[in-house]
Write a structure and sequence with these properties.
The chain has 289 residues and is of the alpha+beta class. Helix content is 28%, strand content 15%.
Length: 289
């Protein structure tokens, strides 16, 4: 795929903004990949096509406006995610800042091969494994892995219901999930990202509003009442938590310990070699696990 020709000033390309700013101005969750815009903001601008890509999950995300990219999904090709998206990529980690890359057509192409999964940086594989095991949208994959380990084949609908009802899938944790992906028992889906446009008016609004934006004051949590046992009990020191960007497809993320430290997050996939293959409709509920 070639670069999409974008005729605008470089200052728009170089505008980096926070998720808090975008959420405050246009609405939507500050963690979800596809945040739905609330009723308070949507009538103001009519935009409900936002998509956010973090390199913790998507090392082949578009690197500059108009550039092609690849989006990874834990499902085997859920066409619910196809369509034109208003794409932001995270371009800075600390503080986390994002750049508007353009309007992208998202299409399911194929599954990630075992070799491609294995070639990804350990930090990316670990992030996916942790998030799949810690999020409701990863339940489906864990159910299938449990069934493959127990029955040696994919589960029937009745078996799926039993495994889910009895929460047997909870025995599938990060090591078991990593092994299943390494062996090819489960495959991640690849979606091509082709830039098909650039909303210059929107980009100008982002740059102009960001230049004068002041973050709202943080809400005060108030003073904690003294606990009479505090002076008698040595409380363990809590480890500092940081946010890891969610790929929960519209679900808010939870706090996760920061285990993203490697600079080598390149995925060995040539975007131009991924060809879109039409598939039949195979939808699933947005929040299905």
């Amino acid at each position: 795929m070639k670069l999409y020709p974008i005729d605008c000033e470089k200052r728009l390309w170089n505008t980096k903004v926070s998720r808090g700013f975008i959420s405050g101005q246009w609405g939507g969750s500050m963690q979800a990949s596809f945040p739905p815009i609330g009723k308070d903001k949507l009538p103001q601008h009519g935009l409900n096509d936002f998509m956010y890509l973090s390199d913790e999950f998507h090392p082949a995300a578009p690197r500059r406006p108009g550039a092609p990219g690849v989006w990874i999904d834990e499902s085997a090709g859920n066409v619910d995610w196809e369509g034109i998206k208003r794409v932001f990529s995270k371009v800075q980690a600390d503080p986390a800042l994002w750049t508007y890359q353009g309007q992208y057509e998202l299409r399911h192409a194929r599954s990630l091969t075992r070799e491609e999964w294995d070639a990804m940086a350990p930090s990316v594989r670990n992030t996916w494994a942790k998030k799949i095991c810690g999020s409701g949208w990863g339940t489906g994959m864990r159910i299938k892995i449990y069934a493959l380990n127990k029955y040696g084949k994919l589960p029937t609908e009745a078996q799926c219901e039993e495994i889910k009802a009895r929460k047997l899938y909870e025995s599938i944790q990060e090591p078991q999930l990593q092994l299943a992906l390494k062996r090819g028992d489960e495959l991640m889906a690849l979606y091509t990202m082709k830039c098909v446009g650039y909303d210059k008016v929107f980009a100008e609004q982002v740059a102009a509003k960001w230049a004068t934006w002041t973050p709202p004051p943080q809400k005060s949590r108030g003073k904690r009442k003294d606990n009479p046992t505090d002076s008698k009990v040595d409380r363990p020191t809590k480890r500092r938590k940081v946010k890891v960007e969610d790929d929960g497809h519209g679900l808010a993320s939870e706090d996760e310990e920061d285990d993203i430290g490697e600079a080598d997050t390149e995925i060995k996939i040539k975007v131009e070699e991924i060809v879109y293959t039409p598939r039949g409709m195979k939808s699933r509920p947005r929040n299905a696990g």
